[in-house]
């Protein structure tokens, strides 16, 4: 999920914080029972595809809200 994480961060950085937040909330719905997300998923069935890289999952779940909060506060350059 690294690429979608980059997309969320980019949305926040260009001032589309609400879109980034919505995208992030959709991602949270795809977590497995221990809170990780796979590299890819099929939205229609919520099936996870590919590996579940814990480092990317955890880092993106922490990093994206930080970027969105900073963008909302005007702390990121555009």
Summarize the structure.
The chain is mainly alpha-helical.
Commentary on this structure:
There is one protein chain. The chain is mainly α. The chain is 55% helix and 8% strand. It is built from three helices and two strands, in the order ααββα. A two-stranded antiparallel ribbon has the order 1-2. A hairpin with a 4-residue loop joins β1 and β2. α1 runs antiparallel to α2, α1 runs parallel beside α3 and α2 packs antiparallel against α3. The model has no long low-confidence stretch (mean pLDDT 76).
Descriptive key words:
single chain; two-stranded antiparallel sheet; 3 helices; 8% strand; 2 strands; mainly alpha; 78 residues; elongated
Strand order, largest beta sheet: 1-2
Oligomer: single chain
Low-pLDDT residue intervals, each spanning 5 or more residues: none
Proportion of β residues?
Answer: 5-15%
Give the radius of gyration: 13 Å
What does the overall shape look like? elongated
Q: N- to C-terminal separation?
A: 24 Å
Mean pLDDT: 76
Major sheet, described briefly?
2 strands, antiparallel
Number of distinct helices: 3
Helix content: 55-70%
Structural class: mainly alpha
User: How many distinct beta strands?
Assistant: 2
Order of helices and strands: HHEEH
Chain-wise SSE layout:
Elements: H1 2-13, H2 17-28, E1 40-42, E2 47-49, H3 54-72
Antiparallel strand pairs: 1-2
Helix pairs in contact: 1-2, 1-3, 2-3
């Amino acid at each position: 999920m690294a690429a979608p994480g980059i997309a969320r961060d980019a949305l926040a950085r260009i001032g589309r914080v609400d879109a980034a937040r919505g995208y992030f909330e959709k991602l949270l719905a795809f977590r497995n029972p221990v809170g990780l997300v796979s590299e890819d998923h099929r939205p229609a069935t919520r099936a996870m595809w590919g590996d579940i890289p814990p480092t990317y999952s955890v880092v993106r779940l922490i990093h994206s809200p930080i970027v969105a909060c900073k963008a909302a506060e005007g702390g990121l350059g555009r």
